[in-house]
Amino acid sequence: MGKNIAKDESSKTRILEAATALFAQKGFDGTSIREICRKANVNLCMISYYWGGKQELYQGIIENLLEKQIEYSKNFLDLNKHPKDMSIDECADLLLIIADKFVDFFYTNISSDLIILLLKEQQKPDFIVKSPVLDYMRNVVARILNKDADDRLVVFKTLFMLSQINSPRILPAFSLRLLGQDDFSQEDIKIIKENVRLYINAVIKEGRNGN
Fold first, then answer.
1. By residue range, what is the domain housing residue 21?
2. pLDDT, tens digit, for every residue of 169-206?
3. Residue 110 sits in the same domain as residue 52
């Protein structure tokens, strides 16, 4: 029984990885179910078994990312504890932890193919992803700045924090290629984290000065 479950999970993971790579390279319309199964080395019926069809599989890639993000965040976040019920100092400390962990997650759990796929999706006007973890981060920023989570300033401050985290990977021509590397070293990760902290500390200072 255990072996069958492990085998099923292995097949599912291979399908997700193969689909992500092909969708990133060829787009949704340019990728066939048959190609995905061939690349994943699985039977054609496995797509129907797990997702139902190509569109559902495509959405499944995003859902799988969100599930991983939520599961990962459980190590350092209590999503049931609302930032409004915390002090500004508590939120400030928590925001630094969230950003630090986000760097680790982004540089170890998200493939280059998934980044390409997400960047393409972001350009679609109807593309909306509801991430409980990112929403929580925005609520923490809102508490620090003493504003609503949907306030324009809060939305952009949160966006700039995320940009500090992901821009080295999203813009490899200005990071890895200049350094002549194929991947980010631990020293690189340390520099990224330090720069993210600098920006967050500036936001925290702004919030404290305004309260």
1. 1-60
2. 999 999 999 999 999 999 999 999 999 999 999 999 99
3. no
Gap between the Cα atoms of 71 and 50, Å rounded: 20
Domain count, the chain: 2
Is the overall model pTM greater than 0.85, yes or no? yes
Query: Are the C-beta atoms of 176 and 183 separated by less than 8 Å?
Result: yes
Whether the CB-CB separation of 36 and 113 falls below 8 Å is answered with: no
* Token pair listed for 44: 């054609």
If we measure between CA atoms, which residue out of 61, 105, 78 comes closest to residue 193? Answer: 105
Quote the CA–CA distance of 4 and 112 in Å, as a whole number: 30
134 burial (CB, 10 Å; 0-12 / 13-18 / 19+) is middle
Helix-helix angle 33-40:54-73, to 10 degrees: 50
